[in-house]
Design goal:
The structure is a single chain. By secondary structure, this protein is mostly helical. Helix content is 58%, strand content 0%. It binds protoporphyrin IX containing FE.
Length: 212
């Protein structure tokens, strides 16, 4: 059995997007401000879902009415996720929590399964919507606009780290191995850099996590 080291993979992504200790501090510092707005943020996300038929359908009853009980439960889940995000850390628990949240959307259990999976593009779109909401909230609430900008950048990077794991249940990577003998051509078919040779790097994993 192969076990993926998710914290190591998240750390690799954190290094790649340049998410630093300073970013982590900025996130933490914005906590009190955003916690106060967590319920409003969750409400805005669900209002957005309800304004598009493709996403509203997950929250409708069989006769097409908004399922208020379900919606309230989901708003609470999203607000909880947002609060957890303020506590973001790359440890052994956070990726597991994110994988579980992702799988509920990619492979929904019953009774949510009645609607089928949530298309991956709406997961991406939701993270984008949340990034915009958070950046706007920070811009409104923080007096120091340069600090608000830095904090929004930290949130953007961290939410991309999360999205990468949230999408794990959707994405099946099938990397094409390097082909050392393939000629290097430009768009017109002319060979470029004829002296250059491509060597196969056995350590390259095309972004897939290290297996133990
Ligand atoms: C990336 C953004 C999203 C986050 C962070 C998120 C977060 C969550 C969380 C924390 C739960 C509760 C999981 C649990 O039961 O433990 C949940 C459930 C659910 N979410 Fe999302 N969600 C996102 C996007 C979406 C989208 C785009 C839709 C559909 C338009 C959606 C529809 C649902 C539904 C239907 C459930 C209920 C599943 C069930 O009851 O079993 N979510 N979500």
């Amino acid at each position: 059995m192969t076990i993926f080291d998710w914290p190591a993979r998240m750390q690799q992504m954190a290094d790649f997007v340049g998410f630093t200790e300073d970013d982590l501090e900025l996130l933490r510092a914005s906590g009190p401000l955003l916690i106060d707005r967590a319920d409003d943020l969750a409400a805005a996300v669900y209002e957005h879902f309800l304004s598009f038929p493709a996403t509203a359908r997950y929250f409708l009853t069989r006769d097409g009415e908004v399922n208020e009980t379900r919606l309230t439960r989901r708003k609470h889940s999203l607000a909880r996720w947002l609060r957890n995000s303020i506590e973001f850390r790359i440890d052994h628990q956070f990726p597991v929590f994110l994988l579980a949240v992702g799988v509920v959307h990619s492979n929904p259990p019953l009774p949510a399964g009645r609607h089928g999976s949530v298309p991956a593009r709406f997961m991406t779109g939701t993270i984008s919507f949340i990034q915009t909401q958070i950046a706007s909230t920070l811009a409104e609430e923080m007096n120091d606009s340069a600090a608000a900008m830095r904090t929004a950048i930290a949130w953007n990077k961290m939410l991309m780290l999360q999205l990468d794991v949230l999408l794990a249940g959707y994405v099946t990577e099938t990397p094409i191995p390097p082909r050392p003998d393939a000629p290097l051509m430009d768009d017109d078919g002319n060979e470029i850099e004829p002296g250059m040779t491509v060597t196969h790097d056995p350590n390259r994993r095309n972004g897939s996590p290290e297996a133990h």
